[in-house]
Design a protein that fits this description.
The structure holds two protein chains of two kinds. Chain A is of the alpha/beta class. Chain A contains 14 helices and 17 strands. Chain A folds into two domains: about 10-165 and about 300-390, Response regulator (Rossmann fold), CATH 3.40.50.2300; about 170-300 and about 390-410, Response regulator (Rossmann fold, 3-Layer(aba) Sandwich). Helices cover about 35% and strands about 20% of the residues of chain A. In chain A, helix 3 packs parallel to helix 4 (about 120-130) and helix 13 (about 335-350) crosses helix 14 (about 355-365). Chain B is mainly α. In chain B, about 75% of the residues lie in helices and about 5% in strands. The N and C termini of chain B lie far apart (about 40 Å). The chains are: A alpha/beta, B mainly alpha.
């Protein structure tokens, strides 16, 4: 028996190194320091470690790049401002996210906060709105951020903003992927019992009606708690129904024991499109040879025909730089993590007075920017406070170059500007 | 539910129960012999898993039995050192609460030290194709890894029982457990026995940690979840009973798997419910010990 240690994220030590380096250059000033008249304080919260660490794998690198970019300050309306960064890792922990929210809003009194994940965004939302701290978040379907907070589409929120694709777009993409392979039209579904999972399994707006509408017969194994370590029940149901398609929402740490139990039961599905589980190469590599053909949503890829407003780099160039410097394969949050800073810095620049929360809030609300992930349009959005972005459908295929698997775009129904790279094939390859 | 589906669920319940029994074994031994509720037991489980992960990272081709042995020895050493340097002194107070509070502090220090050293990320041990291997009996397909996991758990319990009931060391351990003062008077080395038991408990926790990391994934903060399971297994099994712990683990594993059939999102709810009901029943009938 050969054992392999699995680790799918940047270590906290890497972050600490960046923190130490930044402290040395004076960017992470002591928390007792308050924003001076010409200093912009930018807060950041993200899942740099913990269960969603894979979402933050590229973030430490992006933060380092932004630190370099802002080392000489930021020009706003002809005036040079010093920039102070307050970077916090919520360790994918909602409780920690809450204490960080208080820290960034109340203690640090940041001029703007960038939230890289859903926990960070949800925790800081009410506080930021009530204390007038403009906040921009991403990397969770906009419905999962908007509606649980009681959002009304024509009103939005006072100071908090979000940009990402909708769960409806993800689901449409998934259904289109399923239709690209010849199957018995039976789909086994199961979902993590969290906000995105609930949005996916919604009987009226989620995957069930879309599957039905597209002629698929669903075997629903229902929701499972985040602490789940056994999927016997779902596997038993799927063993009875023998669906050719497995789909739903779960993280990689759930998918590995689930997939092991599927294989142990002797099932051989033809399509596996699991939201969140296959966003990252590490999740697919952990499956060994079985990773070939796993399907996923693609929010961003080096093949997206867009460029950065900060560096001027194309998506391809940004991914190449990351791969060269980090010596690891690109991941989707690389694009969104970069775009988060594009939006934040553009808003500060457009505000004319980055220290005035109302000016920054208005600048975000009026933003319509072509970023490295595509157009982010708050100004003309039908949902106030939200900029809805597009996404493509992808499939992990056996790598032909440096990495075991490459993510190929196989469906661009929701984002026609992105070129198709390959045909969708059944699990296990063509 | 068909008979075949029911059989598969029973199999999954048994294998999960074997893991739960393993999680509780060290805690039961520690409490049964030392009369100390070792609240750092969950951290020992986590350290065992991380020791295995570290060993694999350093020596990728290390055979599995050696990985298991290394994890066992690393945690046994940690358990022995903690007993010698910290817990033994707290036990001198002859007040169980003092020792328990000390182990609580130890748990916090161990947990945060590991998070600081290794980061808060989830990690797992991949066993390659074995994780997905299966076999078929009478038309029912079952997994090999759960069976291997159950085998390791049962073997560990068997060896533990042999050690306690069939060896001179075991006799000494039982003597120190039953009547420590008299055992000391007739020449038993009480302090040494305590250290051996603490080492053995931590070593058993390490095996549970390795099995846990093979099945799913583990983080420096997983210890609390493991401790909760261990605590329920130990209390259900009768404080300090090895056979009771095995049966309690199997009961809880079966409960989890079968209850999930009725309620998908139940998770560990019914496991905790069974624990609660049994505890109330015992309290009512005066059989808490």
């Amino acid at each position: 028996m050969t054992l392999i240690a699995e680790k799918a994220s940047v270590s906290r030590r890497t972050l600490l190194k960046i923190g130490a380096a930044s402290a040395a250059t004076g960017l992470f000033a002591p928390s007792i320091a308050r924003s001076a008249g010409s200093t912009i304080k930018i807060g950041y919260v993200g899942s740099l470690s913990g269960i969603r660490a894979a979402f933050g794998e590229t973030e430490s690198w992006t933060l380092e790049k932004m630190k370099q970019h802002l080392a000489n300050g930021l020009d706003v309306g002809g005036k040079k401002y010093e920039v102070e960064l307050v970077i916090r890792d919520n360790q994918s922990d909602p409780n920690r996210s809450s204490s960080i929210a208080s820290e960034l809003v109340l203690r640090e009194r940041c001029n703007i906060v960038l939230a890289q994940d859903g926990d960070g965004a949800m925790s800081i939302g009410e506080l930021a709105d009530s204390r007038r701290v403009p906040t921009i978040s991403t990397m969770v379907p906009w419905q999962g951020w908007f509606f649980p907070r009681g959002g009304v589409p024509d009103k939005g929120f006072p100071y908090t903003f979000h940009f990402f694709a909708g769960s409806d777009t993800i689901l449409e993409t998934f259904v289109s992927l399923m239709g690209k392979v010849d199957t018995n039209k039976k789909a086994g579904t199961l979902y993590l019992d969290n906000e995105p999972g609930k949005a996916f399994m919604d009987p009226e707006l989620g995957l069930p009606p879309m599957l039905k509408g597209a002629g698929f017969e669903e075997t629903a194994a229902g929701p499972f708690p985040i602490s789940a370590n056994d999927f016997s029940n779902a596997v038993a149901q799927f063993s009875a129904a023998k669906p050719d398609i497995l789909t739903g929402f779960m993280y990689t740490n759930h998918f590995i024991p689930f997939w092991n139990q599927i294989q142990q039961a002797g099932l051989s599905p033809k399509v596996c499109a699991m939201a969140a589980a296959f966003l990252f190469p590490s999740g697919v590599e952990a499956l060994g040879k079985m990773g070939d053909g796993m399907a996923t949503e693609v929010w961003w890829s080096p093949r997206f025909p867009y460029a950065s407003t900060i560096t001027g780099q194309s998506a391809e160039a940004l991914a190449a730089e990351w791969e060269k410097e980090a010596n690891r394969q690109w991941t989707q949050p690389l694009g969104y993590g970069h775009a988060l800073w594009e939006i934040g810095l553009a808003a500060l620049k457009n505000s004319n007075d980055p220290l005035d929360p109302d000016a920054v809030r208005d600048a975000i609300a009026n933003l319509n920017l072509d970023t490295i992930i595509g157009r982010v349009n708050f100004a003309e959005s039908p949902i106030k406070s939200v900029a809805i972005t597009g996404l493509a459908g992808g499939q992990w295929r056996k790598g032909t170059g440096k990495y075991p698997y490459d993510l190929k775009i196989v469906s661009n129904a929701a984002l026609p500007a992105v070129p198709i790279e390959a045909e969708m094939v059944p699990l296990g390859g063509a | 539910m068909t008979a075949a589906q029911f059989t598969v669920l029973i199999f999954q319940g048994l294998t999960l129960g074997g893991l739960y029994a393993m999680i509780g074994a060290g805690l039961a031994l520690n409490y049964g012999i030392l009369k100390v509720l070792q609240l750092a037991h969950g951290e020992y489980i986590t350290y065992g898993a991380f020791a295995a992960i570290g060993a694999i990272a350093l020596f990728p081709n290390l055979p599995f039995p050696l990985v298991l042995l290394l994890a066992f020895l690393a945690c046994a050493l940690l358990g022995a050192a903690a007993q010698l340097l910290i817990v033994e002194r707290a036990m001198a107070h002859r007040n169980e609460v003092v020792a328990m509070l000390v182990t609580f502090g130890l748990a916090v220090v161990l947990r945060d030290s590991l998070a600081e050293f290794a980061g808060a990320d989830l990690r797992g041990l991949s066993v390659g194709s074995l994780a997905q291997a299966n076999f078929t009996i009478a038309g029912i397909t079952l997994g090999v890894l759960p069976l291997v996991s159950l085998g390791i758990a049962l073997t560990s319990f068997l060896l533990l029982a042999l050690l306690i009931f069939r060896t001179r060391l075991g006799m000494e351990i039982r003597a120190v457990s039953d009547m420590p003062d008299i055992a000391a008077l007739v020449g038993a080395r009480v302090k040494r026995t305590h250290i051996v038991v603490a080492a053995l408990s931590a070593g058993l926790a390490a095996i549970a940690g390795v099995l846990l990391a093979m099945r799913s994934s583990i983080s420096p903060y997983s210890g609390l979840d493991s401790l909760l399971i261990a605590f329920e297994v130990v209390v259900l099994g009768g404080l300090g009973s090895i056979r009771g712990v095995l049966l309690a683990g199997l009961l809880l594993g079966m409960t989890q798997v079968i209850s999930t059939w009725a309620d998908n999102s139940a998770g560990l709810f019914y496991v905790h419910l069974v624990f609660f009901v049994v505890l109330v029943f015992r309290a009512k009938t005066g059989k808490l010990q």
